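Document type: protein sequence-to-structure record

Subject area: structural biology

Format: plain text, a pair of labelled lines:
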Amino acid sequence: MNIVGSAGSPGPAGVTWRKTYEPGDSVDPRSVVSLGGKLWFAKRATASTPGEAGSEADWDEFIDFTAASEAAEGATEAAAVAQSAAEQAAADRVATDEARGLTAADRQATQADRTAVSADRALTVTARSAAEAARDGAVLVSATGALPFATLNDFKATAYLVGQISSGLDAGLWTRPDTATEPTRVSTATIPALDNRLNVVEPTVATLKQTEKTLPFVGFAEYSASATKHPLVVDTNKRMHGYWDQRIGKLVYNLDLSVFPFFRSAQLSREVDVAGSRYFPLAVLESGRLAISYDMVDNTIVIPSLRTDSAIGGGASVGGGSFDVALPPDLDFGVYDAVTSLWMIPLIGQSTTEGSKGDPPFSDAQPFSNLSWPQGPKTRKTGNGYGGDNNLDPMVAVAPLAEKNVETVCSGALNTLVDLAWRRKGIAPASFPLFGATCGRGGTGIDLFQFDAPLESGRTQRLSQILMDTVTGLDAIESRDLVAPVFLDNHGEFDKLMPKAEYKAKKRRYFDQIGAYLAATIGQTRRPHFVMCQPGEGITAGDGGPAQAMYELSMEHDDCHLLGGKYHQPDADFTHLINHGYRRLSVEFGYSLYDLLVDRIFPRRCKMVSATWNGFQIVTRWEVRKAPLQFDVTTLNPATDMGLRLVTAAGVQIPFTSQPTIGNDGVTMYHSVAAEPPAGAIMRCGFDYRASGVRFTQGASTNIRDSTEEAFVYLDNNDVLQQNVMRCWAAHCMVPVVKSVY
């Protein structure tokens, strides 16, 4: 197989590519085996076991994907320790050699011999006897017997991959993929004569989420190589998620298949024909991440990238379209330490400090203990919003996080972040004290946000000065290091008629001014993130204005992220794609904060660019940061629109008849509709658009604000705020549906 990558390309400290196999070299896939969470390449056919004492001459330890996935933290220290140990060992060898009377030339020759044996070993080889491996059901590699590809989790499961499994996989029978006609079945006795070469590539893996349906299998050890059920997907907690049943010739998964997005079905506990899939799962980590898979379309083995210094255009994209790409160092703020630092999350723009007239969002006289919440974020709805006024003395005890004049979006975003961190990662709220500040309002144009802008009428300070006073005021009363890792940008409504290029340049300039100010004032060396929310106006005509500018900023700059859209119009208004209240907006902001600050990955994004139809099928194509596009339906209530809507020119909806599917190219989506679309039909995209069965109950005002009640009612009456229909922050857009023959 071809190992693709730059020559000697390093991963995290302590993880390297095998020097035995330089990129471009060919290795027979029969010589690949994954044991104990490590991927090995055989130097030659051998009866020994990888990791067994004395097996160094037979095997190269290629990569430890279990350990290396968590190796970024502390890698420098580990490397230093290893270097120190190596230097000490070298000194000890010199002393020993001198005591034996060996010369420097003798030592050099001896070291050359050692290098020939051990230079190709990247990590420590764990000694394990063949007897122990056999006892746990592992199959030892031999020249004529069955050759395991993925033996996982401390030798406790064995799976096989030789050739293209979509053509059949039976005990003792394998498919040879290089024949010109129908695949030829051959017995295992002839495997050594085959030349089945696959490609090893780095960039893409999928994300599998742990659910209650992912239950452990009882009597795991009985699934040995001689059994009729062969484990294929097993996590590091020894839970088997799927197996190959040789009696029926199918993959069987006892879990919610929606977590396997490469299967075109979301049914539960069903048998899956391999021929209906593209990615064949091979190894799963305890976190639920798919560590190794086989792409049957591209004929490649897919493993995750372990490099963290390439975020866009490389690195570990998890689940195509999900874009679980590790943040580059200058955007990664690391694990939050409540003892040494304080994170400040400002919100700028739309309806955030209405009426503050230039006052700082909090009182400098307040001790910071009144501005954080040791028992977790709690707010109470009072008057037009939640909580109280942070300038009051004494503080409103039940609402320590409420902004000035009881605006709620910033509070809701931080509450969502802390709640997600607690429920998903077990991070106690008391260990996550954040502070939210606000600056600006929807009636203010982007020109007035600039640091050198003139004063707005009726204000005593520039909006930028409010932000600066917030930073310096917090820094003065707080002994910990102040950091502003993320700014939530809820602006653009006022500038809806501004040309895209002008708004884009001014928005970028403002973001750069913020970064420069933080560096100069509080010494923040890492760039802050900016999470933008598209306005609803100006996206149906012209060049798209601010909405399109925000999308392009998110695609061109890795510190800019696109959330979704905000629309404050009634549902009957066909100009807009979505009803969007502030509570919903704050939750979406909270999810983006969780991505950036807890999981430390890029938020998701995508955009529909074209739509064609033929008969009762609509085909849409998508622009994504890294293909393939992927649905996440883990929180989706019954729906077929998936956040999309097909309408006539008059705004009449044409229903979808089933959920859409993703094509093998990863950027094409197929939709079945109830009727052929007429001329002038439009496909509308709003992935946070309310799905089927979701209704809003409004108050007297058509502007959904905190003063109105906003009810989310689902088909199953589940009173839980829905996550984005697609777990990806999508650009809102409308494209004409053009007839096409395909």
About this structure: Residues 258 and 266 are 5 Å apart (CA to CA). The first strand starts at residue 2 and ends at 3. The chain has nine helices and 35 strands. The domain at 603-742 is CATH 2.60.40.1220 (Immunoglobulin-like).
